[in-house]
Model the fold of this input.
Amino acid sequence: MLTAKMQDALNTQIHEEFFSSYLYLSMAAWCESNNFDGFAHWMRMQAQEELFHAMKIYDYVNAVGGRVTLKAVDAPATEWDSPLAMFEASYAHEQFMTKNINNIVDIAHDEKDHATENMLQWFISEQVEEEATVDAICGKLKMLGDSGHGIYMMDRELAVRAAPAPPAAE
Ligand code: FEO
Done:
């Protein structure tokens, strides 16, 4: 059983995860229009992964007898100055998402809502991984600077990202 406050927090997070998917798809579209096919592929995979995140919370809310209510998804940014600027925006976004998850864990903790706290542990680990992955990409792109050859190689490296698998239900 979810409190109204927790249900609202989880519905807001479902919205944030859908927005994340939309943002990464927008980044994929920018990459595609600039012939960064590998970066575009990576962003498409990330957009898919964010849908899985949204659905994991959606399924959880239903599983505990709550009510999912969807909100409007805002339009994401559409332009970035460079692949590095785009990945830096992605990193900032993931830091924002980590903060959101931490805030909901705090609510679960205050409410002694152990089931929700347990479900959110998966997201805590996931956010550590997502921040680390994007931070590493930013670091490599910074090393490459304006090297067209280097960025081309990096684009190829990110082209092989495997399709994400849906996380297990709680
Ligand atoms: Fe689902 Fe990348 O936060």
Summary: The radius of gyration is 17 Å.
